[in-house]
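User: Teach me something about this protein's shape.
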Amino acid sequence: MEDRKTELKAALLTILLLSVVYIVYARITTARASSLFGHSIGVVGFLLMLATETLYSLRKRWRRLRWGRMGRWLAVHIYMGIVGPYMVLMHSAWKFRGLAGLAMLLTVVVVCSGFVGRYIYTTVHRSLAGAEVAEDQLRTELETLNEEIDRRLAGQPEAVRHLILQDAVLMQPVPVGAGAGALVANLWDGAIYRWRLRRAVDALPPLEQAMVREMERLLRQRRALQLRAVTLGTARGLLGVWHTVHVPLGVALFTAAFLHILFALYYATLSF
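Assistant: First, the predicted structure itself:
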């Protein structure tokens, strides 16, 4: 089943709600990291980040912990990995100095790295559930999809048939290069293809537009499968490289965060 990015939508909605709360609070009083509100969102955000770093890894590695599907755990991992850092960012009151500034910089880097990892992961895997894609499966799906498109093509108006038959003209050549450049190029290629296909559909008369909507979905799905097929091997290799980089970044982030917390506690409550 196609991944619908539910965790990203939920994270965006949560961020919007938190932003509204923060704006209202800032209009009532001065937003400060040392205030009760600032400390509260900082603690909750840090706990979410800590859970992001630990719970999903425990679920993968601890055989006794089999509650819930891996896809759900990864979705929650991504959700907390977005919302938690945003709450810590609000805790900082948008001021970046000293060790706290370093921790925030590392947070931004780790979050960006997480988005990259999600993209690579969903290129290698069918969805967040973790079922890895195989080359023969992609070929079978493409063949089935082409048969479905050919079947639906029969009986369509001439304008629709012309659009479908000219679909190859809309598609740019698929890059077959290696390395991260191939993934980036294919991401851009897919976006350009969807834009050009949408323009071609919008140019049809209204009646034909309504008839071609389902065909448009199939064509976009076929293009996505083609792009995945040529980058599958590259993505598998990059996923290992990404893990090698992402994990040390997370360790550095939490080292800086723990030091920041210890120093804050010392200067706020233990110093005389």
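Now, about its shape. The mean pLDDT is 76. The chain has two domains: 6-132+236-270, 135-234. If you'd like, I can walk through any region in more detail.
User: That's plenty for now, thanks!
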